[in-house]
Structure formats: structure tokens, C-alpha cells
Amino acid sequence: MSAEPPIRALIAPVTPLQQNCTIVWCAKTGKAAVIDPGGEVPRLLKALADQGLTLEKIWITHGHLDHAGGAEALKAATGAPIEGPHREDAFWIDKITDDGARWGMTEARSFTPDRWLEDGDKVTLGETEFEVLHCPGHTPGHVVFFHRGARFAQVGDVLFQGSIGRTDFPRGDYKALISAITGKLWPLGEDVQFVPGHGPMSTFGHERRTNPFVADDVLADG
């Protein structure tokens, strides 16, 4: 009989950009983290209540509006601390309020995280622990959250099913992004399932075989 998984997760797309906000929780304690609350905070609070969860942490992969615009409101509603991203994304977070007004997401607010994250840090949730990987390229301070035991990662806009993150934003870096994917994510194992910032889930193994940007044979030819 297989053991109970240490964590569970549900995906709640938010904002007009349909960003994959992810609610993860410790199966033993019901303590939850909301990863990338880009907006629609009342709906996220209802989802937590519907699952009988207690919000313990707010985790941010990077400072773009659609991923972090609701973090301040969620903290105000619950008292949960905000952890992440890496401090190199501070300039993006500082722009959230202005960017929200420009894009019609008027409830979005800038904030200061309670904890900036570094490569190799650990973040805890109930009785579980996630590893933090700094994966710049899409933004300079982007981080990924990885639960080794569950073979699960939330990768934000680093990697998608069949694609990779854009690098044409300020301080984007294509070479750094490819290096982060191949040097930080691939070693975690082909069986790792990941939630991207947008679109369907996939596995690192599937992307290594089929992704036209980072498949092994594509990079070998390049």
C-alpha cells in the first residue's frame, strides 16, 4: 500500500492572464501556502475555507503583477507572512501598484516580503519542507519551490509545457534561463511533476524529450 503523500495541491488560475496560483498544504496538519496569489483574493480565501485549510505562508516565485499582485491583500486578510522571491526582483515588486493601474488590476499592491529567499534556502509548511532554487532569466530574482519527497515543483514562469519563460522584459536573460533549467531543474529528476505559471502541468522528463527550447537533442544540436 502506497504511503499518504506528504503534500497536496490545487491550482486556482487567477487574473485575466490566467496565472496558475497554487495552493499547497501539508497533508498531516492542513497548514497551507498560497504560491503566487496574483489576484482574486476573496476566491483564494474561499478555496482555503472549502478545503478546511489554515494559511501559514504566502510564497512568491517572482515579482510580476500577475503572480504577486494579490500578496499584500492576502497578507492583510490572514496575517500570513510573505516569503520570496529573491531580492533581485525588488524593482518588479515596487512597480506592481502602478502596473496594476495600467493593466486594469486596480487591487494589485506593491509590498515588501517578510523574507527574501536565496538559492539553497528551505521554507517550511506544517511538517513539510520545500527547497528553494534561484532560477534567474525570466526575471533576475525568480525562484522555484521544490518538494523532494513528493517529486513536485512550482516553477513559476521559468518553464512551461512546450515552452520557456519570456526573456524580453527588463533584466531578462535568455542564457541564464537556459542555464537555470538545465543546471538547476533537470538534475532534480525526470519524474518531477511541475506546475508552471500558466497552462497545464508537465514533468521534467517530458520537457527534456519534447520541449523545442530545452529538449536534450535540441540543445545538443545547438
Q: State the total count of DSSP E strands.
A: 13
CATH hierarchy, class: Alpha Beta
Q: Radius of gyration in whole Å, from Cα?
A: 16 Å
- Please tally the helical runs, counting DSSP H or I stretches of 4 or more residues: 8
Oligomeric state of the chains present here: single chain
The name CATH uses for the topology is Metallo-beta-lactamase, Chain A
Number of domains: 1
Which structural category fits the helices and strands?
Answer: alpha+beta
Helix and strand pattern:
EEEHEHHEHHEEEEEEHEEHH
Strand content: 25-35%
CATH architecture: 4-Layer Sandwich
Low-confidence stretches: none
Query: What percentage of residues falls in helices of 4 or more residues?
Result: 25-40%
Shape: globular
Largest sheet: 6 strands, mixed
Mean pLDDT: 96
The name of the CATH superfamily reads Ribonuclease Z/Hydroxyacylglutathione hydrolase-like
Q: How many angstroms separate the termini? A: 45 Å
Structure description:
- This protein has a 6-stranded mixed β-sheet with strand order 6-7-8-9-12-13. A 5-stranded mixed β-sheet has the order 1-2-3-4-5, covered by helices on one side. The protein has a two-stranded antiparallel ribbon with strand order 10-11.
- It has 222 residues and is of the alpha+beta class.
- The model has no long low-confidence stretch (mean pLDDT 96).
- It is built from 8 helices and 13 strands.
- The chain has one domain (7-221): 4-Layer Sandwich (Metallo-beta-lactamase, Chain A), CATH 3.60.15.10.
- Helix content is 27%, strand content 27%.
